Amino acid sequence: MKIGDVTTMEIVNQVAIVQTDAPPVNALAAPVRAGLVTALQSAIADPSVHAIVLSCAGRTFHAGADITELSTGPVSPTLGELLALLEQCPKPVVAALHGTTLGGGLELALTAHYRIAAEDARVGLPEVQLGLIPGAGGTQRLPRVCGVGPALDIITSGRHVNAGEALTLGIVDRLVPAASLAAAAREWAHELIATGAPCRRVSERAIEGTRDAQHAVISAFTAAQGKAFSRLHAPAAAIRAVQAAVDQPFAAGLASERAEFVKLLQDPQSRALRHLFFAERALSKSRFISKEAAPLPIHRVGVVGAGTMGGGIAMNFLNAGIPVHLVEVSAEALERGLSVIRRNYASSAAKGKLTAEAVTTRLGLLASSTDLASLSDCDLVIEAIYENMDAKLELFGRLDGLVKPSAILASNTSYLDIERMGQATRRPQQVLGLHFFSPANVNRLLEVVRTASASSETLATGLAVAKRIRKLGVLVGNAHGFVGNRMLAQRQREADKLILEGALPWDVDRVLETFGLPMGPFRMRDLAGMDIGWNRTASASSTVREILCEQGRLGQKTKSGYYDYDESRRATPSTVAERIVLDFAAEHGYVRRPISDEEILERCLYPMVNEGARILAEGIAERASDIDMVWTTGYGWPVWTGGPMHWADQVGLAHIVERLRHYESLYGADFVPSEHLQRIAAAGGSLG
Ligand code: 3H9
C-alpha cells in the first residue's frame, strides 16, 4: 500500500513493513515524516497488525534530518511529534538499519523498541559537525543505551560507529548480513509477537552507574578535551545536554536538549558549518564537466621528482593501494626521496598509526628508476620537479613521446601556466594541474587545475583521483597561483609591510591566530623553510626575509627564523630577527608607529576577500563556496566562520569596501576594491 509519495506499508502475517524511499539518503524531510506518521497511525489502528518494521529502500536508512530544512523552521509533523508517536506505539517496532544511520535517523532508531542492523552498517550523531547537537532525543537516549562515556565520545566527535562496535555498545541489538536484513527484521518481529515481547522504551531505562560515577565521567571527559573544543560552541552544548540526561527526568532532559538545539540553530557557527557541508557536496558539480564524462580508470601512477612534494604525492597513491612508479634524474636524489618515504612510514608505524604489514604492503607498491621510459605503462603521470617553466616544458614534451596515448599528464606546479605545458604535448586535452599542498601526504586539499584545452574526461578523472586518494578536489582555473596561493599572496604582502610600519612578526601572528588560523604568516614561513624560492647568488638583502636567509636563519630547520626554537620546537620571538626588522625599516625610511590589532586583521584579510571576488569575477573559481573549501581545507581557515567568502558576507561587503577605500587612501593601490566586490556590495548582495 502506498502512503504519500515516499512511504509504503505492506502487511505480511501480522507484521506491518513500513518502507521509506526518499533518495538520495532518506533524509527525514517533511514528506518522509508525514508518511511515517500516517503509516504508524494506520498500523496502530489496524487490529490485524501486531508488530511493525521500519526500513528504508536505497543506499541507507535515514541519514538524518533534512539539513536544507533546518533554516526554514519546523513543519508539522515535526521529528519530535513523529518520535513521540513512535515511542508510545503500543505494538513493538523494529528498526532495520543499513548504510549510514545518522543524526535524526539514529534518534528515530533509538526511539523504536528494537534495532537490527546490517553487518556493514554505520551509525552516528554527526550534528556537531554542523555546529548543532542532536535535537530529537539523541543526547538523552544514547547515554541510556551505552552509558555516559561512550555517548559523550560519539556525540562530541560526530564519528561514525561501525556495526560491530554499535552491537558491543548496545546501540543495536542484532547484526545480520546485509542481504538478509529485510527477512531477519521480519522474522524478529514475528518472534516478538510469538513471545509477547514488550514495547521496550529507551526513555524508561536508567543510565548505567551511580549519579556520582556519571558526574565523574563527565568531569573527566570535559577536562580531557582541554582546548580541543575551545572555539566551537556545539561540543560544550552537547556535554551540557548529556549532563541533563544524568540530572533530570527524561522529559525535562529532552526539553533541555531542545533548548540547546534551538539556540545553536541560530548560531552563526552552525550556519557557517552547514554552508561548508553543502559547499563540499557542490564540488563534484561543474559546468566544465559534462554529465556524460566518465573518469578514466587509473591503475598505475607515475611521479616525476622525488623531492618532498613528489614523495608526499607518491605516498597518497600508495596509501590508496595504487601502484606508483617514482622517477628522479640521479640515483642519489632517488635514494634520498625513497629513504624519506620509508622514514615517514616507519614513523607512522612507530606511532601505532600503521601496522608493519600495512607498511610492507605500501612499500611493495612502490617502484622507482632514473629512466623516464619506465613510466610507459602509467595511466597518470604527475610532475613534481622544481618550479622552472623551461624544465617543465621539456619534461612534458618527453613524457608525451613516452607514455601511452590514453595517459593523462599532470603538473603539481604552484604558479606556472599549465596550458603552456599542455601545448608542449600532442595531447593538451589530457593535461591538467594536480596541485597538492604541503605536507602532500597529509593536507586534504587538491586543486584540480582546468586548462582551456582539458577535456571533460580529464577533469572528471582529476576529481575522481582526488576522491580515491581521500583528498578534497576543488576544480580551479589556470591562473597564477590558482585560488589558494593567489589569495595567500595578498595576506603575505600586507604582513610583510606591517612589520616594517610598526608591528612585529609575533603581533601579526597573534592577531591571525586569535582570529582562528592555526598559524600566523611568520610562524608558517619558519615552518615551511624561509629559503623556499630563495636564491643565494641572487640574494641582495632587499627584504627582511632575504637577510634572514643570508644569515642562515632558515626557520625551524635551523632552529632560528623570525623566532628562535628550542629542542622541542617551542618558539620564542627572536631579538635578532627583531633587530633585523627594525634596522631594515630604519634604512628604508619607515617611521614606525603603533598598529592596532584591528588594522592588522583588516589589512591581512580584506585584501584576500577582494582577491577572492576577482577570482570569482574571472571564473577562476566557479563558486564562492569553492574558495571557502580551498581555505578551510588547505590553509586551516577557521571552519566556524565558513571560509573567507562566507565570513565576508557575514562581516558585510559594504563595510569591507568602505575599509578597503580607507586603506587605499592611506596606502594606495593594493587596496582598490575590485569592481565585482563593489558592485555586489552596492546592490546589498552577497558573494555566496
Ligand atoms: C539532524 O539530524 C538534526 C536532528 O538531530 C534534529 C532535528 C530536529 N539532509 O554526502 P553525499 C545530500 S542534522 C539533506 O555526497 P555520500 C547531499 O547534500 C543531520 N541532504 O553522499 C547530497 O546531495 P547532492 C545529521 C542530505 O554517500 C546527497 O545527499 N545528519 C543530507 O558521500 C549525497 O550526499 C548528517 O549530518 C541530509 N541530512 O555520504 C548526515 N545528507 O547529491 C549528513 C546528505 O544534491 N550526510 N544529503 O549534492 C552525510 O554525512 C553523508 O551525506 C552520508 C552519505 C554519509 C549520509
Structural class: alpha/beta
Under CATH at level 1, the class of the largest domain stands as Alpha Beta
C-alpha Rg (nearest Å): 29 Å
Question: Order of strands across the biggest sheet?
Answer: 13-12-11-14-15-16-17-18
Question: Key features?
Answer:
688 residues; alpha/beta; 2-enoyl-CoA Hydratase, Chain A, domain 1; Rossmann fold; N-(1-d-carboxylethyl)-l-norvaline Dehydrogenase, domain 2; eight-stranded mixed beta sheet; seven-stranded mixed beta sheet; 27 helices; 20 strands; 48% helix; globular; binds (S)-3-Hydroxyhexanoyl-CoA
Q: How would you describe this structure to a colleague?
A:
This protein is α/β, with parallel strands linked by helices and 688 residues long. The chain folds into four domains: 2-265, 2-enoyl-CoA Hydratase, Chain A, domain 1, CATH 3.90.226; 301-479, Rossmann fold (3-Layer(aba) Sandwich), CATH 3.40.50.720; 503-587, Orthogonal Bundle (N-(1-d-carboxylethyl)-l-norvaline Dehydrogenase, domain 2); 597-682, N-(1-d-carboxylethyl)-l-norvaline Dehydrogenase, domain 2, CATH 1.10.1040.10. 48% of the residues lie in helices and 12% in strands. The strands form four sheets. Strands 13-12-11-14-15-16-17-18 form an eight-stranded mixed beta sheet, with helices on both faces. The model has no long low-confidence stretch (mean pLDDT 97). The structure holds (S)-3-Hydroxyhexanoyl-CoA (3H9). (S)-3-Hydroxyhexanoyl-CoA is lined by residues 24-25, 27, 63-68, 79, 100, 102-104, 107, 126-127, 130, 134-136, 138, 281.
